[in-house]
Amino acid sequence: MPDLGEGLAEAELVEWLVAVGDEIAHDQSIAEVETAKSLVSLPSPYAGTVTALHCASGEIVRVGAPLLSVSREAPEPVGGSGAVLTGYGTGAGPGLGRTATPGSRRSTAVNGNHPAAEAPHLDTRTPLDATAEKFVRAHRDIPAVTIWADADATGLLAARTARDTGVLPLLARACLGALAAFPALNARVDAARGELVRMPRVHLGFAAQTDHGLVVPVLRDADRLPFDDLVDELRRLTDIARRGPLPAEHTTGGTFTLNNYGVLGVDGATPLLNHPQTAMLGVGRILDRPWAVNGRVEVRKVIHLSLTFDHRVCDGGSAAGFLRHVIDEITSGRRGGEAEEGSSVSSALIGGP
Hints:
The protein is of the alpha+beta class. It has 2 domains: about 1-100, CATH 2.40.50.100; about 140-340, Chloramphenicol Acetyltransferase (2-Layer Sandwich), CATH 3.30.559.10. Helix content is about 20%, strand content about 25%. It contains 6 helices and 17 strands. The strands form 5 sheets. A 6-stranded mixed sheet has the order 8-17-16-15-11-14. A 4-stranded antiparallel sheet has the order 4-3-1-6. The chain has a 3-stranded antiparallel sheet with strand order 2-5-7, with no helix packed on it. Strand 3 (about 30-35) and strand 4 (about 40-45) form a beta hairpin. Helix 3 (about 165-180) crosses helix 5 (about 315-330).
């Protein structure tokens, strides 16, 4: 059992994702464990064959105790730190901590002289990382639905100027006002027990683009922080993410995600949910578009919003109500422009600097 951070000494094994005899890849998700604060998917530090599982579902396992045994026939992961779980403070950097696969080829050269492009009959193989299995599980197990709408963002941009802050903190504030009104979207599904579990606090995941790829830091207890503190904490986590791999306590346990597609130059998407979360708000580009205002067509700043949700947690009416709540706040700009300094919000969310 790896050290999951936050001073936690133990975790409950919720579910094994592998069995004795399975062939597993390095970084493949092998189990889900639950701490006092979050549900965590554990990746394997080794590739090989599972020879033993040392604890059962529902058992409390202390940090450092054995979880499973793996018979390794493949080479050690590059970098020589096979005993360290990828994503839990290896500091290896991109490309390290991967297991070579038989028959793989370097993409830059073949036979030491000729570029790979001159030998199309030779393929290039790269091991899938731990997130690949999570994507498959989300697509297979979650009945996700996406709804979308455009909104006049003129009031939102005015509030940004008034508060001298970024757009996404204001979007976040509106979003969490909607979560307070529709708490079913801050939840997870316990499929084994057939139960919907509403989370008591909002642990916000927000997408951040960095030089080493897209990462999703988690801002814990976001609903307890005043607006200015939320802005500061968002910036702090974004800075940490841009300097290198985030520690586990900043990447696990999210209950809701705000995803900013606009920085990628697109209007929207139909994303896979970040299991075990049950909802994600997507934010597209803000563009000049023709918009009807009091019976006349004007050029306005228009933003595209989308909500992807697990249809098991609510119906389309509730989901549409959530999205309309966000749009109404964006249109008026009240949440960002008129909130009192230092005041807490019942549900606060931040999506980017």
